[in-house]
Amino acid sequence: MEEMAGMTRGRFISFEGGEGVGKSTQARMLVDALKGRGLDVVQTREPGGTPGAEAIRELLLDNRFNWGTRAEALLFAAARSDHVANLIHPALDRGAWVVCDRFVDSSRAYQAGGGGWSDDAILSLHTLGSNALMPDVTFLLQAPTDAIAQRLHERDGDNSDRIGGKPASYHARVAEHFRRLAAIDPERFVLIDANGTPNEVHERVMRAMAPFTGEGG
Known about the structure:
Number of strands: 7
Strand order of the largest sheet: 4-5-3-6-7
Shape: globular
CATH class: Alpha Beta
Number of domains: 1
CATH superfamily: P-loop containing nucleotide triphosphate hydrolases
CATH architecture: 3-Layer(aba) Sandwich
CATH topology: Rossmann fold
């Protein structure tokens, strides 16, 4: 990691995957584990993480609004720009670790993969709004479709938000696009089997974290 005024810049970790794979749970468990090792850790999410970005999140997930893919992508990019400028960059600059539940790869998968936008367009917005910041490592959680459907039913019942409630074909395109992103950037992406209990999945994440926490030999 780069040095800034004698201080080592922090590490940026994101969790990605489709609806119901357990990203939020695993992000929280990783934060607890890293804090247990004495690290300064910031837990955050997208869209959200700052007051401005959280306000945009409410708009994005509100079923009253039928945002088109263009407006949706612009709103996500605006929320991320505020999030990066006011939370992520300051935390990294002081040497903290940032663990984020979703980041730009979700826009690439949902708006480009699910919504038909080009990946180049999403990345152009990200360059403009967030100086093309990318995580140091991205954990992509994957689980079979039937297992995810059961988790979503248990979590949301009939009260899915605007994005979670989109048709199965949309979510299948999203999952496929996540797999493509991981295939073209294998140095950053780490695939994690999301089957099993939260503790079992957490153990897989921690084994994958070993090289980043100085336990990789």
